[in-house]
Amino acid sequence: MKKTDAPILKYSAKGRSTKIEDFLLRPPVEKGADQIAATVLADIKKRGDSAVVKYAKQFDGSPVTLKTLRVSKAEIVAAKKAVDAAFKKAAKEAHTRIVQFAVAGLREDWKMPAPQGGYLGEKFVPLDRVGAYIPGGAAPLASTALMTLTLAQVADVPELVACTPADNQGKVSPYILYALDLAGATEIYKVGGIQAIGAMAYGTKKIRKVQKIVGPGGPYVTAAKRLVYGEVALDMVAGPSEIAVLADDSANPAHVAADLLSQAEHGTGSEKALLVTTSEEVAKAVRSELDTQSAKLTHKKPVARVLARGCLLVVVSDIEKGIELCNRFAPEHMEVIVKNAERMAAKINTAGALFIGPWTPEAVGDFAAGPSHVLPTGGTAAFFSGLTVEDFRRRVSLIHFTKADLEETAPVIKAFGRVETLDAHARSATIRLEK
Fold this sequence. Notes:
6-stranded parallel sheet, 3 domains, 44% helix, 17 helices
């Protein structure tokens, strides 16, 4: 059995390891992905559906045609029959939990009085048409269907579009189709990768343009999403998965290794897994467990790639130093398996999601807990947040002034109009107050 290449390094205030610094500074989009994505997107913008079908064949090995691009009602009915009862029960339970969390997160319209009788406030309006990207290449991510469109469903978005790649037989996983139907998808298309992002962003004759694209993907999907920003709204940079675990000597090394491997198995080879621990013994035991457990996994090859180039085990002098390192990493998923886990977790401020204590593996967030598993990656958790129900609504400010409110603020308007040389702005207020 080949030993894992994951190094054990030390992190201290005296000097920073080049390997650690390089690991922390991973780019949100891989080198070269932007250029390829730009070429494909330009072709889709120019040629529409024919380019989409071309790239579905080239990149996905899919034989879809213009006639078979959209999933039919008959295919959804067949998927419902094909899916086993145990999965249906699990999907419904997950859907219920996601709905409950989303409903709790909905903001209500509100108003406050203006000083002279008017009012100010906000109202929240659902978007009209959104698109969700559902990965289905290396693994059929049925959970992502629930973790994206269910939120739009709760937000009352009327048109819910999903794109997911078909296999070399032109078929989509029945589990993905079942989950998409459960989440309220109104249109499902058999297209993945850059071509899916381009179709949803620009619109084609077959796939009408959406207002916002959400959902995770590999490096090329992430690059494509960044390039179409402005054509459509986006959720965040959600690329290859990553996890960090903060552990002390109370952590079970077998559990920690299992959690690191849970993200390494996604299949792009670009995933990141970081252990930060106060115990060198735990680090060594985790490395041994990575060897033992990875040998038993279904996706051995992509896991091996991550263990070779995307896994780091770091020993720190104390928990505070470990928290500093984790905050610098700004991981998508952050597990805290230490004594006083809640108190320590309160000090971690840059993470897509926090998993607190020994009974909260990252997988509960992926499949069952309720918050969406669509989270920022590549260090962008330092300034992006995970997908929520509010990402599917517009926030509209409300301003209703009385004459007295306008009279009270007129001096402010005139002052800014004068300084910014925008006299028409000021005039639009003062003209109303002229006798």
